[in-house]
Amino acid sequence: MSAAFDDLFNEMADLSPEARARYFDEHDIDRATRLEIEELLRFDGESSSALRNYIRELARVAVGRFDPEGTNCGAYRLGKLLGRGGMGAVYLAERADGEVSQRAAVKLLRPGVDDPSLRRRFLAERQILAGLSHPNIASLWDAGHRGDGQPYLVMEYVEGEPMDVYAARLNLRQKVALFLKVCEAVSYLHRHLVVHRDLKPSNIFVRADGEPKLLDFGIAKMLDLTSDATITHMRLLTPDYASPEQAAGGAVTTATDIYSLGAVLYKLLTGASPHQFETSSPAVVAAAISAGRITAPSKLAPVLKGDLEVIIMKALRKEPHERYASVDLLAADLRAWLEWRPVQARSGDLWYRTRRKLRRHWVLATATCVIIASLSVGLYIANWERLIADRERLIAERRFSQLRLLGNRVIDLDSEIRKLPGSVDARQRLVAVSLDYLEGLAKEAHGDVDLAEEIAFGYTRLARIQGVNVEFNLGDSRKAEATLIKADKLIETVLTARPHDRLAWYRAAQIATYRMVIAYSEQRRADLALHAHRAVERIEAFLWSGSGQGSESPSEATHDVRLSDRGAAASLLGNVALNLVNIGMYGEAAQYARRAAQLAQADHSPDLITQNLSILANALRYQGDLDGALSAIREARKVSEQGSYANDFARLFNLFGPLMREGKILGEAEAVNLGRPDEAINVLQKALDITEEIALKDPSESSSRVRLGEAAWVLGDILRDRDPARSLAVYNLGIQRLGEIGHSLQARRDRAVLLASSSYPLRTLHRAHEAEARINAAVSVLRETRDYPTDKIRLDSHADALMRAIAEHLAETGNPERGLAVYEELLKKIFASGPEPEANLQQATALSCIYAQAIRLSKLTGHDTRAAELDSQLLNLWKRWDSKLPNNEFVRRQLDAAKKASIVNTPSGTPNNTARLSAGLLP
Fold first, then answer.
1. Does domain 160-348 have CATH number 2.130.10.10?
2. Is the separation of the CB atoms in 264 and 312 below 8 Å?
3. Do residues 604 and 582 touch, judged by C-beta distance below 8 A?
4. Where is pLDDT greater, at 387 or 894?
5. Hey, what's the torsion of the CAs at 679, 681, 683, 687, to 10 degrees?
6. Spatial distance between the Cα atoms of 509 and 592, rounded to a whole number of angstroms
């Protein structure tokens, strides 16, 4: 603060309001300085008693004579301090009257309670909250005054994170979906004549289940009340989210909240506030907000370019009447964006921007017209010179085109020879030749964007042949990944040069999707999620992009994709959904699968409809909706069986998925299912037969063998106790076919699990030594792939299956103590991996199976205390799921089984005394 400002403040301090006004007018004091002086003088003249009270209470806290923690507010005992604000403090509280166990947040008016304006505001908050009831608004439970007269509010305690912190780990579409829930809450407020006036991420907490809660109505108001409309309100607001009319002390309406919602959305999607200040001075900050200058969101996040940016900027317009007329209209445009429909904000956006620019820059606009006219003559002359340069460029492009066609035609040959038996060697030679061509072209691509895009596409197609598990491939995922990295770098240069290139966005989405598929085959979960979200963002950009350079559709330009734009997007989205299911992100997977199925139906693509309904069924299954899952998968199977396909391979592959998923839904062992194993066996046998038919036609084709291994694993597990001999035959077929694939981590891991799993029927058939040999072989394979031993093991992983096989083998061959020790070690490593059995139904099912076996062995070996602990954990797990999914048939079956096991004693007897096997078996 300057010395001149200090002198002016001291001179004004003792003057009456009327004298100050005359002084300001006579000395021509600017408005910003005048407002700041008035603000400081208001605090200088506050009630002395209020100030004394405030100081007294602070002193009491400082000397330890007053600490609200441990005291009561009505039926609630205060706990730790959660936060402080301008009006008071909020404490975590527990209900202390013994009636019910309940946590709450108690808000106490800060010391200085005889400040009339502060008390009015606090009581107004209480009145507003009392009239509200919405699932996304924190509820008011109680209110009153303490013995010392200090008022308090008892509110719902929201355990979660501020919205911007929570949203930081979401992708673009998830952020918008989360924001829509906040819009619903604010719309509810407006319908009840309440304006929040302080919407910001820290006032919106998101719980672990993804539900946002609107908090802090400390400066909210009813629309039929009046309130101070001065610059001093900036002290109570967060300037980053305040509207221009708030900053200027104007009327506060629902448009104020719409502006703040726009600012919150800007923050969520860009990571930055729409307002940037170089000073904390209230007057300067207010002036900056009133100016209405906001950086376009796409400058900070290019993916926002298009409809989403238009929506944000309409909500953030300076003039209230130019914003959305209601929160519902803002939400409608966001839903339209999510559903790939036109947004209403587009209709008036061009004229709005043009009108504003002309009004601000009318002199420049006039001059521009003159300049354009004068330049036209110059451009006409320059075009003649360009023609000469263009001729030389066309000659160079013709040379590149010849090389480009040669390279692509070599790749095209693969689609013809892949159907021939014994074609692997020929395909490998084609890959080598194509790679040479592409490497040569890449050296000549500097500065040629078209050529860079074509080379990126060539690399992408080459990677599919090398080892992306979306078609018949050579099973070399590492080389495929290296090739895709080259493609990704090239396509990024294209998008940098041409951010509206429709075809480039599609190809970029393809690359991200294929890298996601490879990450799954190599069990790189974090990479999978990263590439999945990147793929979705690129698919969105592809669907957003309009006509223009490079805007031809995939069906016209990608050679191997014969789909419309909707079909192309459905294919990629389906792949994303499938891989998200595979890593347990079921809610997000269902969202993308449902959208992909809708796109496929609009495109009349039976194979895509089948694929995406199948994926949707899996996502629903793992959320506990087994009836919905069965309905979706049977519809997929019906579409698949009635569809027409280019060849028999395509028909069989398209039918395999629905059969496989239907069998799992009906009765997959130790998994979420309908409990109908006999039906499951018949369906899964058909899936196994299909893949065997394909494998027999081409001894070197890998995709069918991977699928056969999957079918053998599921079918063999169901048959294990029902028909051991048939189960062993199924396992053996899977082991054989997976062994015929080279250079595939996924195939080696799956084969190791089949080896370990086959130990169960082998023991039942009295071939325990063979069982041990197979387990040891599985150990060797997973050691080579570095999956075992390990400090962390995921549920349902290859290492999980192996350790369970080891534990059961030890227990059934005379050493239940060692078997129990292996189960205990497995549980320790599973919990080290951070499982979420209370949030993931499939993980709950898998974990409960381990609990059940550990309980059995604990009772058998006399460890009754440990058995009781595990028994309690198992029972509580399903009680929580029963509360979460009430009346769910599958959950009720698990809960009933857990209750039954908890009261049934293990029959007395001795362990199986099969001959002790070699000590080489590693737990």
1. no
2. no
3. no
4. 894
5. 170
6. 15
Q: Say whether 160-348 and 69-157 share the same fold.
A: no
- What does the block give as tokens for 334? 């966001």
3-state secondary structure 359-410: HHCHHHHHHHHHHHHHHHHHHHHHHHHHHHHHHHHHHHHHHHHHHHHHHHHH
Q: How does residue 806 score in pLDDT terms, banded at 50, 70 and 90?
A: very high
Predicted local confidence at residue 751, as pLDDT: 96
Q: Residue 769 is which amino acid?
A: H
pLDDT in tens, 594-633: 989 988 888 888 888 998 999 999 999 999 999 999 999 9
Q: Torsion-angle region of residue 74: left (phi > 0), alpha (psi -120 to 50) or beta?
A: left
pLDDT the model gives residue 97: 75
Phi, psi of 195 (to 5 degrees): -110, 125
* pLDDT 10s digits, 182-224: 999 998 888 877 888 889 998 899 998 899 999 876 555 555 4
Dihedral sign of CA atoms 566, 569, 571, 576 in order: negative
pLDDT attached to residue 764: 97
Instruction: With a cut of 50, say whether residue 399 has pLDDT above it.
Output: no
Q: Are 843 and 894 in contact (CB under 8 A)?
A: no
Would you call 160 helix, strand, or coil by DSSP? strand
Q: Do residues 129 and 155 touch, judged by C-beta distance below 8 A?
A: yes
CATH C-level class of 69-157:
alpha beta
CA distances from 136 to 106, 121, 163, 184, 265 (A): 19, 23, 13, 8, 17
Query: What are phi and psi for residue 145, nearest 5 degrees?
Result: -125, 140
Residue 79 structure tokens:
């706990």
pLDDT in tens, 273-290: 888 765 555 666 677 777
For all residues of the chain together, what is the average pLDDT? 79
Which of 95-99, 299-303, 634-638, 698-702 is predicted with the least confidence, judged by mean pLDDT?
Answer: 95-99
Backbone angles phi, psi at 448, to 5 degrees: -100, 100
Distance CA 647, CA 450 (A): 34
Cβ burial of 433 (10 Å; 0-12, 13-18, 19+) is middle
Residue with tokens 């599921």: 714
**Residues 486-514: b if buried by 16+ CB within 10 A, e if exposed:** bbbebbebbbeebebbbbbbbbbbbbbbb
d(CA 470, CA 402): 29
* CA pair distance 916, 251, nearest whole angstrom: 86
* Contact by Cβ (8 Å): 501, 494: yes
Domain ranges in the chain are 3-44, 69-157, 160-348
Q: Which single residue is written with the structure tokens 């330049």? A: 375
Tell me what pLDDT residue 48 has.
Answer: 43
